[in-house]
Specification:
By secondary structure, this protein is α/β, with parallel strands linked by helices. The protein folds into 2 domains: 95 residues, Roll (Urease, subunit C, domain 1); 302 residues, TIM Barrel. The chain contains 14 helices and 14 strands. Bound molecules: zinc ion (ZN). The site of zinc ion has 4 residues, from loops.
Length: 414
């Protein structure tokens, strides 16, 4: 018994020309065949009629934080919510992300106090207990004492109580923190190469780890078979991370020409997170951010679009990432319009969220395109995203591994 999707327009392999009037045959959660024309219904087969829709692979967000959602009450919630509460809220965030059309995410770090929520969620989704995207998780972000990602802004004893397992200083500390994340179940390692916007300390957005510490983090991760990614705004930290061998750069806000050259030479991926930049810049004007954060938000926010324009023009590989958790979970697709505003074509932006994202997370043999053998991660939209990319903000059909999670648009089978 098979499920057959009748696709009016099919972006089977984003980056290549769309196909028209094709059928996608799904068996046991995977794509069995992609055939020209609308297949006739055989007995026992289920037909999903998306003949007036644009059908494309499930979207992939390479930068989310499912265990958090930033907002005016964030600081109080951090000390009020138990790890169990965080896990349940994260499940709701995961569901919102999935029904928005994102069938796979990379979770780039829990905050202090979240316990093992992200790993529990990854497992619960994989077992089908709760709906959500397939999750690849970093666990705790590796950060130096006082650095971005370390709990701050409370009394010091409360800060320490909320400390995460990613705090690391010196070569030995860095090696141990990476090993600890791998031991906890991390799929990859995220570290802070520079200061960050949403840290309530006036430490700027420059380099935060010494080069020998960066080398220790990356060498340990690679030894244990894990890719690394660096949170990085300032050019000094971006370049130090690149020279130490990092695999990708998140944000990359102030990358200079030398950084761009290094990224090209080392085939390092850029995950721009323009939505996070736009979100913090808007929050800075609402007035609830502390002074130290507001100053950085106004500086970094508007910069990210310009940076994506330069990195894309230079030919750096871009993978889609939103930093959702800074913005609201489920709003992930708002990133697309910003990518197009930064100079990417709609097709390039879609490829960044499908094929290139799948390659970036090392899972391109399973997801990222609609081809036989891959997971049946398939979405559909009513309007053509190649004409107006904002069509992806209104996903009407979501299938993940052959299971339908949303079906607002398909017509009654005939
Ligand atoms: Zn982030």
């Amino acid at each position: 018994m098979a499920t057959i999707i009748l696709a009016g327009t099919l972006l089977a392999k984003p980056g290549e020309e769309p196909l028209h009037k094709h059928s996608v045959r799904i068996e046991s959660g995977r794509i069995a065949a992609v055939e020209k024309g609308f297949a006739a219904k055989a007995s026992g087969d289920e037909i999903i009629d998306l003949s007036d829709q644009v059908v494309l692979p499930g979207l992939i967000d390479c930068h989310v934080h499912l265990t958090a959602e930033f907002g005016p009450t964030h600081k109080m919630l951090t000390v009020e919510e138990s790890a169990a509460a965080i896990a349940l809220h994260a499940a709701a965030h995961a569901r919102a992300t999935l029904v928005a059309g994102f069938t796979t995410v990379r979770d780039l770090g829990e905050l202090g106090g979240a316990g093992d929520a992200i790993f529990a969620l990854r497992s619960a989704v994989a077992k089908g207990y709760v709906p959500g995207p397939r999750i690849f998780a970093a666990g705790a972000v590796i950060s130096p004492t006082g650095g971005h990602g370390i709990t701050c802004g409370y009394r010091e004893d409360i800060n320490l109580l909320l400390d995460s397992s990613g705090r690391a200083d010196g070569i030995d500390g860095c090696r141990q923190a990476v090993r600890r994340q791998v031991h906890r179940g991390a799929d990859f390692i995220k570290f802070v190469a520079t200061g960050g916007v949403l840290t309530d300390t006036a430490t700027g957005t420059g380099q935060q780890f010494f080069s020998d510490e960066l080398e220790a983090i990356i060498a340990t991760a690679h030894m244990l078979g894990r890719k690394t990614t660096a949170h990085a705004h300032g050019a000094d930290g971006i370049k130090a991370a690149l020279k130490a061998g990092v695999d990708s750069i998140e944000h990359g806000s102030f990358m200079d020409d030398e950084a761009i050259e290094l990224m090209l030479a080392r085939k390092v991926v850029h995950v721009p997170t323009t939505l996070a930049g736009a979100t913090v810049a808007a929050q800075a004007k609402q007035g609830f951010l502390p002074d130290a954060i507001r100053k950085k938000a106004l500086e970094v926010g508007p910069q990210i679009l310009n940076t994506l324009n330069r990195s894309h023009k230079a030919g750096i590989r871009i993978a889609f990432g939103t930093d959702s958790g800074v913005s609201r979970h489920g709003d992930n697709a708002q990133e697309f319009a910003l990518m197009v505003e930064a100079g990417m074509s709609p097709m390039e932006a879609i490829a960044a969220a499908t094929r290139h994202a799948a390659e970036h997370i090392g899972f391109s043999d399973q997801i990222g395109s609609i081809e036989p053998g891959k997971f049946a991660d398939i979405i559909a939209v009513a309007h053509d995203p190649l004409k107006d990319i904002r069509a992806l903000c209104d996903v009407g059909f979501v299938m993940k591994a052959g299971v339908v999670h949303k079906c607002a648009t398909s017509r009654t089978p005939t």
